[in-house]
Write a structure and sequence with these properties.
Structural class: mainly alpha
Order of helices and strands: HHHHHHH
Oligomer: single chain
Number of domains: 1
Number of helices: 7
Shape: elongated
Strand content: under 5%
């Protein structure tokens, strides 16, 4: 719990003092490996695409904390599905699930159809969509984090006096 509070204090301070781009660079060049940063964001996105609503963020942050992943990248992964994007994401979940099951059900909720028919399409489509999107996000974040960590390490090495020219 103390670790979470300390990270929160650091993040609030960074958020006030720096630009969003600087915050992303800090995530990539922090103490975590590129795998930990990428896996954290992928788990955050995965849990958010499946219709879990607010509970999904708590689940993702707990997994990140338990597995010692980058919690900020996990949080940002969950924020991809936000109040502005969730209607589109959940509609895509339902549409994909409906396509997989291959039974067309109207989007209105008639009383003759049980709610489980809609939920099964929503969660099936959400699971498939979440797997695909999380893999894509993992790959993208992994290579970005790896690039920034190598760049950050090279800048540190250049700053050491032994490697400066003329000495």
């Amino acid at each position: 719990m103390r670790r979470i509070l300390l990270e929160k204090e650091k993040l609030v301070k960074l958020w006030k003092e720096h630009k969003f781009k600087d915050l992303l660079k800090l995530i990539a060049t922090g103490n975590n490996t590129p795998h930990q940063v990428a896996l954290g964001s992928a788990i955050g996105l995965f849990v958010s695409i499946i219709p879990t609503f607010v509970v999904g963020m708590l689940i993702a942050l707990y997994i990140a904390w338990d597995r010692k992943l980058n919690m900020l990248s996990t949080f940002l992964g969950t924020m991809i599905v936000n109040p502005f994007t969730f209607p589109f994401v959940y509609f895509a979940d339902y549409t994909l699930g409906d396509y997989i099951i291959s039974h067309k059900i109207p989007l209105s909720f008639p009383t003759s159809q049980p709610i489980t028919a809609y939920a099964s399409r929503l969660y099936l489509g959400g699971f498939v969509f979440a797997v695909i999107a999380s893999i894509i996000l993992y790959i993208a974040v992994y290579y970005v984090a790896k690039y920034y960590q190598e760049k950050h390490l090279n800048e540190k090495i250049k700053g050491i006096k032994i490697f400066k020219k003329g000495k």
